[in-house]
Structures are given as structure tokens and as C-alpha cells.
Amino acid sequence: MDRCTDLCTKPIKGYCTLCEALAERDRFLRFWGRVAWYIWDISGLRFLYEKVVPPKPDEAGRPPSTLLLWLGTLYIALFGLVSQRYEDRFDHIEQRLSGLDSLLAADLRRALPRIPAIQNLNIPHEPNVIKPWSVVCSLLCPQAPHRETVQDLQSIIVMNKKKLERLNLSKVNLSGADLSDANLRAATLFRANLKDSNLFRANFVRVKLSEADLAGANLSKTDFTNADLSGVTNWTRKQLMASYWDKRTQWPDGFKPPCPRHSEADRCKMTH
């Protein structure tokens, strides 16, 4: 651009503010024009447009890109695959829950021992079409129990915590559950997840807790008289300072419990 207007000062002063502004505008338009063309081409919009409005023979240039169209098609197909996989597994869990609901109404003590198996049913990560990582994770990440199902079934056990005597609840997930004053006398809790649960004054007499996880559990006044605690993991002696047990209580190999404390019932017998 030699002169912007008849009043251009470039021939006299060597520069012109208006000329520089117009040149900057031209550079701006050229740059964003290239960006817009690149997006128009690589997005597949140009390809679709030319399918509807074919270019004239003398206007035909480089063929339009179809890369993103192919990638989008593959992504939608992948999402459909993992979504169907997730739904099939979720439907299976819902069928098991439906059967459990019927049994709970008919025979509570037969129904409760079935809860751990349903809690431990694995399901893929739920895919979300607007979150590509969730789709990839649903396909490649390890499956895990359905969190809401685990919590709902946990609530059923908590509601019936006074009726758990002699039940087999092996591998049940009761992490964070309020089981204070629960009656689990002679129950089987092999490999149960009791992390951060409240077991205050719970009856664990003759309970089988081998390999259970008691990390962070409140064991204050929990009665472990004649209980099988072999292989219990992630607990400390401090947790047992206010618990009850006797010489028949079985401990994990190498674990040294605090001094024995007898249950309130046993102390009554000893004083009479």
C-alpha cells in the first residue's frame, strides 16, 4: 500500500498512522481468514457443503479433508458400543435387585445373605458422550461395583442391624455404616469391608471376622468374646482399647491386643 488517501503523510514523514492501521487490519483479516478456511476444511463442513453444492470443474482445487468426520464417526460408534455394554450390565444388576426386593418381603433372613453378592457385581465406568475420557475409561478401565447399588444395599442391612445374628455376610461392604448396637452374634463376616464403620456396642460374640478390613472403625464397647479375628487387616491396638474380648478370642498372627477386657455380661457373672 503506497498511499492510503490524498492526505497520506508517508511521502513526507516516512510513515502514516492510517496506513499502518490499514496494514494491521489486512494482516488480521488474512490470518483469521486462513484460520477460518482451515476449520472449514478440516472439520468436514467443506466436504458436506460440496456434496450438496458441487464445485464447478474450473473451481475444483484440493479435495476437502474428511479426517474429523471419520474420527467423529468412530467416536460415536465406540460410544454406542460401550454404552450398550454398560446398559446390559446395569440391567443385570437391576434384575438381581428386583429379585432381592421380592425375597425381602417374603423372607428377610434368606434375603439379607444375598446382598454381598449383588454388592460385588462389577460394572464398567458409565460413559458420557460429551466426556470422551469417560468413554475410553468405560472401555479400558477395570470394572468396579456400582456405587449407588452398594450404598442402597448397605442401607437395607443397617435398617435390619438387630436381625443379623448367625447370617453369612461374607464380603459384604459396610464401609462407613452405622452399626452401633447391631446384633451380629455368630455371623460370618469373612473379608467384610468395615472401613470407618461405627461398631459402638455391637454384638460380635462368636463372629467370624477373618480377613475383614476394620480400618478406622469405631470399636468402642464392641463385644468380640470368642470371636474369630484371625487375618483382620488395617486396624490398630488403639481401636481396641475400649472393646471387649476373652481368652477364646482368636487374633491375627503376631498381633498383640491390649490387656483383656471382659464384656459387661461376663463382668456381671464374675461379680456374682
Q: Can you walk through the features of this model?
A:
The chain is mainly α. It folds into 3 domains: 10-54; 68-159; 167-272, E3 ubiquitin-protein ligase SopA (Pectate Lyase C-like, 3 Solenoid), CATH 2.160.20.80. Helix content is 43%, strand content 1%. The chain is built from 9 helices and 2 strands, in the order ααααααβαβαα. The chain has a two-stranded antiparallel ribbon. The longest helix has 40 residues, at 67-106. The termini are far apart. Residues 267-272 have low confidence and may be disordered. This is Pentapeptide repeat-containing protein. InterPro entries: 5peptide_repeat (IPR001646), Pentapeptide-BTB/POZ_domain (IPR051082).
Structural class determined from secondary elements: mainly alpha
CATH class of the largest domain: Mainly Beta
The strand count comes to 2
The succession of helices and strands, N to C, reads: HHHHHHEHEHH
- Regions with pLDDT < 50 over 5+ consecutive residues? 267-272
Q: So, CATH architecture of the largest domain? A: 3 Solenoid
List the domain count as a whole number: 3
Mean pLDDT score: 86
Which word captures the global form? elongated
Order of the strands making up the biggest sheet? 1-2
Q: Biggest sheet: strands, sense, closure?
A: 2 strands, antiparallel
Q: In angstroms, what is the radius of gyration?
A: 35 Å
Distance between the termini: 113 Å
At the fourth level of CATH, the homologous superfamily of the largest domain is E3 ubiquitin-protein ligase SopA
Protein name: Pentapeptide repeat-containing protein
Organism: Entotheonella factor
Pfam families: Pentapeptide (PF00805)
InterPro entries: 5peptide_repeat, Pentapeptide-BTB/POZ_domain
